[in-house]
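Weekend entry, working from home. Most of the wet-lab plans are on hold until the incubator is repaired, so I used the time to fold the two sequences that have been sitting in the queue since the last round of cloning. Logging both here for the record. First:
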Amino acid sequence: MTKLRASITGVGGYVPEYVLNNEELSKMVDTSDEWIMTRVGIKERRILKTPGLGSSDMGSQAILQLLEKTGTNPEDIDLLVCATVTPDQPFPATSAVICDKIGLTNAFAFDLNAACSGFLFALNTASKFIETGSCKKVIVVGTDKMSTIVDYSDRTTCALFGDGAGAVLLEPTTEDEGIIDSILRTDGSGRTSLYMKSGGSVSPPSHETVDNKEHYIFQEGQTVFKAAVSRMADVSAEMMERHNLTADDLAWLVPHQANLRIIDATAKRMGLDPSKVMINIQHYGNTTAATLPLCLWEWEPRLKKGDNIILATFGAGFTWGSMLLKWSYDGDKVSK
């Protein structure tokens, strides 16, 4: 029997128009462009300022662009998986809201939360529906409005995050392309090093939790940095070793955009020239579940059929992983 693989056949992306740069941020909190650039490499980030709009709206825009670029009818989509840590509401799922907004009437949909690893985990999950033959067209979208959970009086975290969304279309292929392999990991002992303290069933919202600013991102910076550097690099190198790949065999590394030093350490461990590493953290910051698809979206015109690409990520949980895929089309032939 011919083996089916899930192949990415299109990419869409969306970032809000409003740009919050380091100069403006330094007027809100005790920080500076030099301090931020030295530590994380972020120059600016996009913020969704329009009242009443949330993660579903950004995700919808990314998917609508994806559908138009690929000439896909919304009614032909079998499944939508939405990776997010900032859902519009606790329920219904943001994926269901997106389905309603863009007319996905024949799809089933669900959300997946693996923090900054969300898109990679969702991509792996969605690929299984393709590989088993149960779905023929699947959309995976990563969308996060991180500005809603950022404390802009906390200099240690407020410079890190931005808002955005990215989406891909998965379709089956019997060619030597598509998603080849993935390595996914979780270490729950890191769960108190990067998290939101309140708002869930253990500590529901109250006047006290709001007053104590417990509905914002809490992070032990050094702990997270050390874990991210070692584990994201380790799992990327493991993927190369598993498939006997050298740096020359790889066209691109697509790393989670959390910190430029983490990205550099991962590329160095893999022996990759910086020219093979997708980096847009300076423009968008950490958009959590949207970082990987936004990189693919931005670099799409430079991607060639047959390119070997490794995606790598690390996030709260702790969660981390890598994925090897072989690109299925020439991106420069896709109309924007």
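Second, folded right after the first finished:
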Amino acid sequence: MLKENFCLAVMDTSMIETDKAIQFISDFRLETYAPILVLSTGDIVMRILNAGADMRFSFSASSELIVFHALSALRRYTLYNLYDEKKPSDAVIHRGDLMIDPIRHHVTLDGEEIYLQPREFRLLLHFARNPGIVVTPDRIGETIWQNSYDHNRDVTAVIAELRRKLGDTKDHPTYIATVHGFGYKFLPQTRNLSKPVITTSNPL
């Protein structure tokens, strides 16, 4: 789909059919982790967010407000996702004291290895690649895990186990915060400048 790399996408749905807009957002999200900002009517907000959009604005929103949020999303993305978009699965990600190696399915916290189940690993990897972005239980189940389980119950259990393994708590989160009524988000971590932010793994 994408012939170039993108760091930000802003989409106006006023000139496109809703289903086509949703499909475009979903396809775009599968190929890049860049922030997606969407202008739309209020009745399709949840469909837009479930498809992979990060933020929705009404058509009456001021251009200044949209630009402000666009720059904020762009700044967050470029600061916390300094890996090669051409090979995103090859990037070892550092989030504070947390290190995630997607190729080797290897996770360490403050130098100590953490053993994660497959769904825990996929969810943590998505969180780490999208700090500050709210993810709904439906999106976690349908897009990240690609299954048809009871999303709310399953997600709640996996989130609780991830928090336990990360030494996190619901009331005072360091990594995973609950956004009541919407879902969860990964809290941006302060970079340790004594460590490389991103390294590239060579599986050979």
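Plan for Monday: verify the second prediction. The two ends are 28 Å apart (CA to CA).
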